[in-house]
# Entry
Amino acid sequence: MSVSTPRARQWVATAWGPPDSWEFVEHDTPSPQKGEVTIRVLAAGVNPADAKHVAVPRTGIELPVPIGYEVSGEVSAIGADTRIGSGAVDIGDEVIAFRVRGGYATEVNVPAEKVFAKPSTLTHPEAANLLLVGTTAAEMLAVTGAAPGETILLHGASGAVGVSVLQQARLRGIRVIGTASETRFDEVRRFGGIPVEYGPGLADRVRDLAGDLIAAALDAAGTDEAVDVSLELVRDRRRIVTIAAAGRAEADGITFIAGSMPASARFRDEVRSELIALAQNGDLVVPVARAFPLDEAPAAHRLLATGHPGGKLALVP
# Structure
């Protein structure tokens, strides 16, 4: 008597629109080809980009679109003569994958060069959320040229990208003044930042804390206040970077970065191994607020859309 194996399932956008319009469908996972591996997904990272990129029609992208850019799990099949980004691989190895397509799934085939050994210090929900925010934070620090001994201003310091910036800056000896609501001050301090409350009078409060020049500003909040205060406090506009205010970047001559931009994509690919090593050493952690069952992806995005999830979110099959 044979026992049938349940088919894999994944979330796809079959029409342009919000997460509540996505469909959770069965799909076949073909045997991986040379240069591919199959991952049994144990957690998928939840990011704003997952919803943003299928909210409205995008040039060159056809429906349906599988959802999800990063996962953590176990290798269940390997293409012929294939090694992953971190080297040799065996069936059952725990891995993470980033910049993939269709991670909101029970099983997914991915290009092997996007797959790395999972840091043993992280749980699967944590590991599934390491690289998108981590590489974004690393690029923000890099493009502003933030250097040891400098003081920088970080808008949105208690958010997911902000928390990674705080940790990476502390490792480099960079002093960070970070904006947050007063209820999140302890989170900013936990990761080495100096908290300051956003709102009217922000520039003066930052001056009082800085004691010297604000060398650069990193905007993970995207508000007009964040850009205006950065312009007021930072002399060189080239040292102001935003990931959330593209319009202001174009209008005001500051730097905008995004994973879809070729230069950003190259940088983020190159820095993956460094961030994984930091996590393995315990120098880079990923606070996770909540793990949702995979079939509740829209609910996870409703919480994410509030802007105050309290940490990263994950989907667990």
